[in-house]
Amino acid sequence: MVIILAAILLWSKMPLSFAVILLYILLVTVLSSLSFRILLRNLLYLTVALIVPYLFGLIFSICGVLFDPGGFSARNINFPAIALKFGRLILLGHIGSIYMYTTPFGRIVGMLNRLLTPVKRCGVPVGAYLRILICIRTELPNAIKRGRDTVARWRDPVGTIKRRSLKSKIEGMANVIVSQILQSFQEIERIQRLIDETDCADLDAFRFKVSKFDIMAIISLILLGGAVLWMEQ
What we know:
Transmembrane segments: 16-36, 43-67, 79-101, 213-231
Low-confidence stretches: none
Number of domains: 2
Oligomer: single chain
Shape: extended
Number of helices: 10
Structural class: mainly alpha
Keywords: Membrane, Transmembrane, Transmembrane helix
Order of helices and strands: HHHHHHHHHH
Protein name: Energy-coupling factor transport system permease protein
């Protein structure tokens, strides 16, 4: 369903159809019951990830005027088309984030295992990659916590906020670096054991199940696609 909604979004070209899709996504967002903090954070990340690279490209293009004055002009920029593309990309990322937050991770991995069955028949070790993906998902919260602790030790390597000599600060940072290197080797061994011990037998037992909510969502997508098709003609 997420793929169908993304296809409808990418296929739409008229501003009116884009507005209808936006209203539909807003309705889905409200029904997903996600916290406003999570939604705002995701939209902020997506906006920064899209706008910052474009601004760099725009700056480089303007700097190119110094070498080729006739090669760039603000009149050649189609700002409405750029805004529409940005809107599509942000909404696509927003749809994906809603799906990731509202769907159990085991179901996502099981669905990937089913969808990649033709690839497995070609000899690709899909199960091994999915096992790594499960381990990453399991260890990600702990890794974030360890990263924050590391940053805190870097800021205050001697364990106090009081002023110390430069030598003691250098020694403290050196101890932090050495401890992080040793911990990295230990983490590599632990993660390798975790990967080997991860059981992926449940992935093969995954079956696609269609609930009443899924049927209602499919019907709403069909209606949305019909409305967009009518407005695009």
